[in-house]
């Protein structure tokens, strides 16, 4: 891997940018690998990267149906935070946060992780109780968090509507200063480039059509590019987990839903942080390019269509104007939708399965992007060691049978 | 003084001069101008700067495709960022500023970026700014400051917006010749038709056209057609209305701009309107965009689309240049050359095709226009404005390099690389786009919804074809809705044969793209041919990767100009065909729409309904601050004489405990459940034994989700053998009724039970305290209220003070209390009556806060505050409510391994030894004061108050294994303080035997 | 029962607030019909113990066709396959409910007087279809939604029962009491461009 | 925004309805007889079909009836609505 740096930019400019190497190869699949990762999104590529770097497993293929990073990695609102309520979730997300903090340097690819802080607003007395509870739990878990008053919010965030006469007045917020946003596409590309450099084969346009088993164990996959063998298969295909599970005869506690988002036209800086609201459902940040990046809600129905209903967008625009009346004249440039797979407890599954050698990483719902490095790190451990790391042990499939759910629905602030 | 304005012609009104400002300079235009045409008329060439390299840019297009002239229009609260000058109708007093360039677009200090263009190659930011790690936020600050176009207003939007739902048989998107023909055909057939066009006038390409339709000039045909449409009651005409999104099940969204074109002082009423249209059939007729050509320095001000040049001449009587070079690979730009010649400009046509044009070529020759066939424009001379072009012969050889070139002086380059149908809405609708190898463009393919494309958005560029397709598609759409259109004879048009277009995706230069000046594909994002090639070199080969890596098509024009050329360059690099490279998905919005119009009227006070009880106005008059509970406004407390919350609540609590309090509990959910199977049904829902309840009895009931977690609670009463009255929490009312109905209808339809919501029918007035019985007796009650006649947890119908009521002897405070359920029509009078009667007892109205304190003193939980979706009834110590004799929803889940753990978090009370600190709600609890991070937590405080009647703080908490830990000490982890020891107690602090409510 | 009790529809405060905006020739007018009683009736139409006695008592047929109104002595609205709303003068509502209860006592039926729980607003005027279209997704075109038709739907953010009582047009909007203040405020706002007047019946 | 046909009220906008998930999940007759795994399968596991999906909708703002819909979860096309067995209908009279 040739190193990226300001120097390399200048040097290459002098040769008219004709000497840049490809960021990752496009190899043909080998007949057999030690590990196959199904799904070339951020989580899959991160898994491959950490298999190679943390566990020395380099004979790995990442199989991607379309183009890498083309699923939810390329369709999210780029928020990264770790201030979850329950210890299990917050420690997993905090692991991810710590990886984010050095990710550009680790990957030698600028993922533009911008720690501009995330505010989770409270609009009712119960919201504020939940915020106190969560912030206190975060601090005890060593995660930076603080409760800020409406007055502090008004000072820190220009133009936000802190009027007590608002329909749902802002009473306060939690603030995680280390949280922020990252450049979504760069995460997939950075992991791909770094994994490729360590020997991982990234194979695009290769759709898995079947999971081959012998007895109770996997032997490989059927793909549109032929049979590929491997004793261990990690499936990490946000949105389509149930479809892959069905290929292995498994049923999952997951439903896939459309989740939408939109951006405004680029504006001069107006919002310098990330603001999320649960009661007034919407969340907003401003990209480095100047676009306001705004997340909408999940559509209620099951959907694999990568699009949702327009009234969901309308509701979100209303919410944004409620929070920022000055944005009423700003214009939506582009909207899109992704597919999120949602677990009953709004927490992911990073788990072994009843099929030997088959591992699933799914159910991230709206929280997947921020977890990318941590998810890959934990999944790599689970696959390499054939047992979960203690960080992801609570996120096994068994919890749905025992009842040990980690319910992030309740007080965990707006999910995503 | 408008130097480029032609003396005659155009659709402008020269009798109405308008004054406007651009970047502080004052100009004059005419009614009928766009800001772009007025700027061109005044000879303004630089209207903006590019995003990254800050190169000077001029107006390129004439409409939605314009990438450069991005303006800030208006000031203050009325400011509107990022409008395209090509779409802004001129009005008197208009103030516009360029959005790029500092201090301005004409002189921009950022222009230095251009000198480092090679360093700022595609994706350069991914490769640098990584060291030192801590500096990223500094780098980012610089990047952010230089990004963005306009500014969001800093004042609240004074305008209002509205939604309008509409239904029609046929929606026609686009009012050019095809759309008009379609609307006319469908309208005359009798179908309900809506015709929307983004411009102020219908007509599209025919506006200002100097040709005949039938035996009349085009504009005459337009006038007659629009008149015919306007005369039809079943046709709705929507000018200034953009169909910006096509969603599932033929739902389309249209943004109508009602007042933006008026001087600010004349604007009144709705600014913009969102039409939410459900159409049975849709005819898409949005036309086509002309493609630019990718040659060196093709972004210099003065390089324009040929069709835009024609548009400015014909429609606005503006001549964009005096000495023009028309550079084309097809016949259509010859019309532009003719327009220019007629406008008095000198023109040279550079045609890449060795054979030149068809009959239009002859017309050009007759007009004295010289045509240089088999040549291409390779480069542009001039920096702030076109001064000339380099032209070289080209054999059509795809090796693409050219040799010696000649210079032609000019001040305008009108380019045409052919046409791209506007397939956007077809694409939104889920339709595929297919490559038409003959016409070299993507055309709409198979559709998934009830829509059809007609005219140039279908790849049909001739006027004759547009009229024919429009008519046919309008007839067909109407026919599918059951309306038959009369046959009409289509007007004839005079169009000759055209020579085919020669694909020319990248114009050869005298060096490869990396070495020659930039050949731009996406003007706004400064994406050049070399950038695409670089992306491919670096392995970004999928079209989506290329777009994301180079930002091709991510500008505010969303790639309307540059996408196809970019894809073709990509295809060339990969050695593939364009359709193999693939198309990209177009997503709404077709052109940007304001958040305000998306939100409509549901903002401010109307953002969400405020539900009010029948007694609400009394609470307001009494000065009570309101608490949001669900959609309800409930009085929080009733301050007297500037009391704060705590003082008021202490007073209210004491009143209720010692004499008499009164509370509006009307927001509780209320459900009438009756039928032969009602007991059987409720047995399955509630955890306790319902069947053994006697008529007239009340019971506290909880319901669980199937996961065993507490979902809702409330008092339920048996008011008849087959009739129950159920109450729910305020927030849970709607959900509980829906939940009950779902079980009745989907799982147990054999059960004969009717459920009816009575939440709004009955208001509930809680009369609480030792004097509550006396006040009711004083009012005159038709039943005996003594302990034996009307015992605790019973219900009676009665007449109270002359009002029919349902009287409950229940208590959420632990005191002797009655709940008066009364027809809401009388509730306010009843409230006032009780208040008057209670005066002698010092009756004290109280709100939600006091209610919370009183119930917490008694250890009564609030679902949603003391529970969070992970709490079972066993955790709450409610085992006594769980029937062993029957199944009920959620029962099985309680037997799962995790639910039978004895170290689950359980409801307990907490007391602090110092008897002074009110623990903040949400405080986490820990076992030891000094555990290292991450500190294990054993629970948290759910409710916490100063108890006025006990004289010390109390708290409820969920604590791991808490019930077995009475009297143990654990620690409250208070932020910024030493952990505070607290003692675990039973959750009931006051009157643990419940004697006070039984009196 | 005391007939001296005065019913309040709860919009008295709002009327006083909006009273200042009265105009001579409004595009739409809203009449608050606090003088009407509402009875919710449930039962199975196929049940011989239900339909005949109810129809006999009412002196009119219940609308069996979904989303239609039978308007003779009482206005009866179809709400669901086993649910109707009877709108009748408030003064007699309680008594009518009681008689319905007695008439259906032998079978599975439910009668609830909900006069205090909801309010009927009569909307009239040339612009009222346009006004409703601002907040209601139903197709209210005369060819689709004719006199005698009713539908439950959303109007702005409130659930309503909407009925076209006559073709002048006169729409009846029935809304839950707790949402009525919101809905009137919404109507006042949405109707401000065409002019809207509110009055008590 | 979807257009959903209520078997009683006809085609109405999606906003009038609430979604009830996969159709045909029957509550076990005797939950107590089930293993934890069997109970979990009823409680949580869903087919989550990509393609033709039978699902429940409730006409929440309308007649409050639950009914079934067959909808493609990729194209969102609805091929039909159906009444649930046992649903009452006053047109039977």
Question: Percent range for helical residues of chain A?
Answer: 25-40%
CATH superfamily of chain D: Folate-binding superfamily
Which stretches of chain D are poorly predicted, pLDDT < 50 over at least 5 residues?
none
CATH fold-level name of chain D: Folate-binding fold
Strand order of the largest sheet of chain D: 3-4-5-6
* Main sheet overview of chain D: 4 strands, antiparallel
Number of helices of chain D: 1
On the 0-100 scale, what is the average pLDDT of chain A? 95
Question: How is this structure best described in words?
Answer:
Chain A has 416 residues and is an alpha/beta fold. In chain A, 30% of the residues lie in helices and 24% in strands. Chain A has helices at 6-14, 42-55, 87-101, 103-107, 125-140, 150-156, 184-197, 241-247, 310-323, 368-385, 399-402, and strands at residues 35-38, 60-63, 79-80, 118-122, 146-149, 172-176, 180-181, 201-203, 208-214, 217-223, 226-229, 232-235, 255-264, 274-277, 282-286, 292-298, 331-342, 349-352, 358-362. In chain A, the strands form four sheets. Chain A has an eight-stranded mixed sheet with strand order 5-6-4-14-15-16-13-17, sandwiched between helices. In chain A, strands 8-2-1-12-19-18 form a six-stranded mixed sheet, sandwiched between helices. In chain A, β15 and β16 (292-298) form a beta hairpin. In chain A, α2 packs parallel to α7 (184-197). The longest helix of chain A has 18 residues, at 368-385. The radius of gyration of chain A is 21 Å and the shape is globular. In chain B, α3 (177-189) runs parallel beside α9 (463-480). Chain B is α+β, with helices and mostly antiparallel strands and 999 residues long. In chain B, a hairpin with a 6-residue loop joins β3 (48-49) and β4 (56-57). In chain B, 61% of the residues are buried. Chain B starts with 12 loop residues before the first strand and ends in a 14-residue tail after the last strand. The model of chain B has no long low-confidence stretch (mean pLDDT 95). Chain C has two domains: 9-35 and 117-200, Probable tRNA modification gtpase trme, domain 1 (Gyrase A, domain 2), CATH 3.30.1360.120; 36-115, Alpha-Beta Plaits (2-Layer Sandwich), CATH 3.30.70. Chain C is built from five helices and eleven strands, in the order αββαβββαββαβββαβ. In chain C, the strands form two sheets. A six-stranded mixed sheet of chain C has the order 8-9-10-7-1-11. A five-stranded antiparallel sheet of chain C has the order 3-4-5-2-6, with helices on one face. Chain C starts with 11 loop residues before the first helix and ends with a strand. Chain D has 93 residues and is mainly β. Chain D has one helix at 36-43, and strands at 3-6, 10-13, 18-22, 52-58, 66-72, 78-83. The radius of gyration of chain D is 15 Å and the shape is globular. Chains in contact: A-B, A-D, B-C, B-D, C-D. β17 of chain A pairs antiparallel with β31 of chain B.
């Amino acid at each position: 891997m040739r190193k990226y740096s300001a120097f390399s930019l200048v040097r290459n400019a002098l040769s008219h940018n004709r000497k840049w190497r490809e960021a990752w190869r496009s190899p043909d699949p080998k007949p057999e690998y030690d590990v196959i990762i199904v799904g070339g999104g951020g989580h899959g590529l991160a898994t491959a990267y950490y298999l190679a770097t943390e566990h020395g497993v380099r004979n790995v293929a990442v199989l991607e149906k379309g183009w890498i990073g083309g699923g939810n990695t390329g369709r999210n609102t780029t928020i990264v935070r770790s201030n979850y309520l329950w210890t299990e979730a917050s420690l997993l997300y905090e692991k991810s946060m710590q990886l984010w903090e050095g990710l550009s340097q680790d990957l030698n690819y600028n993922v533009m992780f911008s720690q501009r802080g995330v505010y989770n607003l409270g609009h009712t007395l119960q919201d504020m109780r939940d915020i106190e509870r969560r912030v206190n739990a975060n601090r005890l878990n060593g995660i930076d968090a603080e409760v800020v008053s409406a007055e502090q919010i008004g000072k820190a965030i220009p133009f936000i509507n802190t009027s007590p006469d608002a329909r749902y007045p802002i009473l306060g917020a939690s603030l995680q200063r280390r949280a922020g946003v990252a450049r979504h596409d760069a995460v997939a590309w950075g992991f791909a480039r770094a994994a490729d450099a360590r020997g991982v084969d990234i194979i695009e346009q290769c759709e898995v059509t079947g999971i081959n088993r012998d007895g109770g164990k996997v032997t490989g996959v059927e793909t549109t590019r032929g049979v590929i063998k491997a004793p261990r298969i990690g499936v990490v295909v946000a949105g389509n987990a149930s479809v892959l599970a069905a290929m292995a005869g498994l049923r999952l506690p997951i439903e896939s839903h459309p989740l939408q988002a939109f951006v405004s036209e680029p504006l001069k800086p107006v919002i310098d942080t990330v603001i999320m609201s649960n009661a007034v459902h919407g969340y907003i940040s401003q990209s480095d390019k100047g676009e306001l990046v705004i997340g909408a809600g999940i559509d209620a129905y099951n959907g694999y269509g990568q699009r949702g209903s327009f009234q969901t967008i309308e509701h979100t625009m209303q919410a944004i104007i409620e929070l920022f009346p000055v944005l009423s004249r700003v214009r939506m440039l582009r909207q899109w939708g992704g597919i999120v797979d949602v677990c009953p407890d709004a927490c992911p599954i990073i788990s072994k399965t009843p099929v030997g050698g088959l591992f699933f990483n799914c159910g991230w719902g709206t929280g997947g992007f921020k977890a990318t490095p941590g998810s890959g790190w934990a999944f790599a451990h689970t696959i390499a060691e054939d047992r979960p790391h203690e960080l992801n042990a609570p996120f096994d499939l068994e919890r749905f049978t025992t009842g040990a759910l980690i319910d992030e629905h309740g007080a965990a602030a707006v999910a995503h | 003084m408008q130097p480029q304005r032609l003396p005659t012609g155009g659709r402008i009104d020269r009798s109405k001069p308008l004054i406007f400002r651009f970047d502080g300079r004052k100009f004059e235009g005419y009614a009928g101008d766009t800001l772009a045409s007025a700027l061109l008329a005044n000879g303004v060439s630089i209207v903006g700067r590019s995003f990254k390299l800050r190169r000077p840019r001029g107006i390129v297009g004439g409409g939605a495709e314009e990438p450069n002239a991005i303006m800030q229009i208006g000031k203050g609260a009325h400011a509107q960022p990022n409008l395209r000058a090509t779409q802004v109708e001129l009005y008197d007093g208009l103030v516009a500023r360029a959005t790029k360039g500092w201090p301005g677009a004409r002189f921009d200090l950022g222009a230095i970026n251009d000198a480092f263009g090679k360093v700022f190659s595609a994706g350069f930011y991914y490769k640098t700014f990584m060291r030192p790690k801590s500096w990223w936020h500094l780098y980012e600050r610089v990047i952010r400051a230089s990004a963005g176009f306009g500014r969001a207003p800093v004042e609240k939007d004074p305008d209002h917006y509205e939604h309008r739902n509409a239904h029609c048989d046929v929606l026609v998107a686009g009012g050019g010749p095809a759309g008009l023909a379609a609307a006319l055909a469908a309208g005359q057939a009798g179908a309900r038709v809506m015709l929307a066009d983004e411009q102020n006038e219908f007509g599209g390409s025919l506006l200002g056209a100097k040709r005949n339709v039938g035996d009349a000039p085009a504009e005459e045909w337009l006038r007659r057609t629009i008149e015919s449409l306007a005369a039809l009651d079943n046709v709705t005409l929507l000018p200034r209305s953009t169909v910006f999104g096509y969603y599932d099940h033929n739902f389309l969204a249209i943004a109508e701009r009602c007042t933006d074109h008026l001087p600010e002082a004349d604007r009144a009423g709705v600014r913009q309107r969102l039409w939410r249209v459900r159409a049975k059939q849709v005819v898409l007729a949005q036309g086509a965009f002309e493609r630019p050509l990718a040659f060196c320095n093709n972004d210099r001000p003065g390089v324009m689309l040929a069709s835009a040049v024609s548009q400015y001449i014909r429609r606005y009587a503006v001549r964009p240049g005096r000495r023009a070079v028309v550079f084309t690979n097809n016949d259509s730009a010859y019309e532009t050359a003719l327009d220019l010649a007629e406008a008095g400009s000198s023109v040279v046509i550079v045609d890449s095709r060795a054979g030149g044009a068809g009959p239009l070529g002859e017309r050009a020759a007759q007009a004295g226009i010289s045509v240089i066939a088999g040549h291409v424009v390779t480069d542009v001379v001039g920096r702030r404005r076109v001064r000339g072009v380099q032209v070289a012969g080209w054999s059509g050889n795809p090796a693409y390099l050219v040799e010696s070139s000649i210079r032609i002086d000019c001040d305008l380059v009108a380019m045409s690389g052919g046409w791209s149908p506007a397939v956007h809405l077809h694409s939104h609708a889920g339709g595929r786009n297919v490559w038409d190898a003959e016409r070299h463009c993507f055309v709409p393919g198979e559709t998934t919804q009830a829509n059809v494309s007609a005219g140039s958005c279908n790849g049909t560029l001739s006027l004759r074809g547009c009229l024919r397709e429009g008519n046919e598609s309008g007839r067909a759409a109407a026919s599918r809705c059951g309306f038959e259109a009369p046959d009409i004879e289509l007007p004839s048009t005079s169009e000759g044969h055209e020579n085919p277009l020669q694909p020319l995706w990248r114009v050869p230069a005298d060096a490869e793209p990396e070495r020659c000046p930039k050949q731009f594909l996406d003007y706004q994002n400064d994406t050049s041919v070399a950038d695409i090639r670089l992306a491919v070199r670096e392995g970004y080969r999928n079209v989506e990767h290329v777009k994301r890596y180079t930002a091709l098509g991510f500008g505010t024009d969303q790639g309307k100009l540059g996408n196809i050329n970019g894809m073709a360059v990509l295809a060339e690099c990969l050695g593939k065909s364009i359709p193999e490279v693939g198309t990209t998905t177009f997503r709404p919005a077709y052109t940007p729409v304001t958040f305000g119009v998306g939100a409509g009227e549901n903002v401010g006070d109307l953002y969400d309904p405020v539900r009010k009880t029948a007694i609400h106005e009394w609470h307001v008059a009494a000065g009570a601050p309101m608490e949001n509970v669900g959609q309800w406004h409930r009085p929080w407390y009733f301050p007297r004489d500037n009391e704060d919350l705590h003082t008021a609540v202490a007073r209210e609590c004491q009143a209720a405990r010692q004499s008499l309090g009164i509370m509006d509990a009307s927001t509780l959910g209320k459900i009438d459940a009756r039928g032969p199977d009602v007991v059987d049904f409720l047995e399955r829902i509630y955890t306790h034994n319902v069947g053994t309840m006697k008529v007239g009895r009340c019971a506290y009931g909880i319901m669980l989700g199937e996961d065993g977690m507490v979902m809702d609670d409330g008092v339920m009463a048996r008011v008849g053998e087959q009739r129950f009255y159920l109450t729910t929490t305020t927030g849970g009312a709607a959900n509980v009724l829906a939940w009950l109905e779902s079980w009745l209808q989907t799982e147990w339809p054999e059960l004969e039970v009717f459920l009816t919501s009575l939440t709004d029918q009955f208001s509930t007035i809680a009369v609480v305290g030792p004097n509550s019985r006396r006040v009711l007796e004083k009012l005159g009650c038709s039943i005996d209220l003594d302990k034996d006649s009307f015992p605790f947890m019973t219900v009676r119908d009665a007449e109270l003070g002359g009002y029919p009521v349902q009287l409950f002897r229940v208590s959420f405070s632990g005191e002797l209390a009655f709940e008066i359920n009364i027809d809401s029509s009388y509730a306010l009078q009843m409230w006032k009556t009780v208040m008057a009667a209670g005066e002698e007892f010092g009756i004290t109205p109280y709100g939600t806060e006091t209610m919370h304190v009183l119930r917490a003193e008694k250890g009564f939980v609030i679902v949603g505050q003391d529970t969070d979706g992970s709490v079972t009834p066993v955790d709450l110590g409610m085992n006594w409510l769980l029937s062993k004799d029957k199944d009920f929803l959620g029962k099985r889940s309680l037997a799962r391994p995790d639910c039978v753990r004895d170290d689950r978090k359980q409801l307990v009370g907490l007391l602090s030894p110092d008897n002074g600190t009110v623990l903040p709600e949400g405080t986490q609890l820990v076992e030891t004061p000094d555990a290292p991070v991450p500190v294990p937590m054993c629970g948290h405080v759910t409710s916490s108050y100063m108890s006025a009647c006990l004289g010390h703080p109390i708290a409820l908490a969920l604590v791991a294994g808490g019930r077995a830990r009475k009297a143990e000490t654990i620690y409250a982890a208070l932020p910024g303080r030493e952990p505070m020891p607290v003692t675990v107690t039973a959750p009931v602090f006051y009157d643990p035997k419940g004697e006070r409510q039984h009196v | 029962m005391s007939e001296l009790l005065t019913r309040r529809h709860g919009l008295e405060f709002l009327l006083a607030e909006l009273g200042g905006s009265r105009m001579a020739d409004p595009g739409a007018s809203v009449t608050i019909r606090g003088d009407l009683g509402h009875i919710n009736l449930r039962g199975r139409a196929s049940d011989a113990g239900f339909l005949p006695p109810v129809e006999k008592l009412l002196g009119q047929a219940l609308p069996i066709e979904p989303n239609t109104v039978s308007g003779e002595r009482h206005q009866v609205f179809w709400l669901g396959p086993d649910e109707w709303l009877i709108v009748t003068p408030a003064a007699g509502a309680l008594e009518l409910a009681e008689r319905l209860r007695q008439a259906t006592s032998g079978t599975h039926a439910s009668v609830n007087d909900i006069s205090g729980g909801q309010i009927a607003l009569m909307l009239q005027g040339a612009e009222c279809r346009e006004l409703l279209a601002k907040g209601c997704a139903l197709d209210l075109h005369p060819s689709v939604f004719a006199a005698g038709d009713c539908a439950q739907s959303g109007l702005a953010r409130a659930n309503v029962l909407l009925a076209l009582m006559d073709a002048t047009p006169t729409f009846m909007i029935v809304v839950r009491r707790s949402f009525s203040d919101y809905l009137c405020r919404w109507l006042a706002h949405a109707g401000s461009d065409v002019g809207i007047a509110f009055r008590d019946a | 925004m979807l257009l959903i046909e209520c078997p009683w009220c006809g085609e109405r906008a999606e906003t009038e309805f609430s979604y009830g998930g996969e159709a045909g999940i029957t509550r076990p007759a005797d939950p107590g007889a089930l293993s934890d795994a069997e109970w979990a399968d009823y409680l949580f596991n869903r087919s989550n079909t990509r393609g033709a999906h039978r699902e429940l909708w409730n006409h929440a703002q309308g007649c409050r009836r639950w009914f079934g819909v067959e909808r493609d979860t990729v194209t969102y096309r609805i091929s039909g609505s159906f009444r649930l067995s046992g649903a009452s209908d006053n047109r039977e009279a």
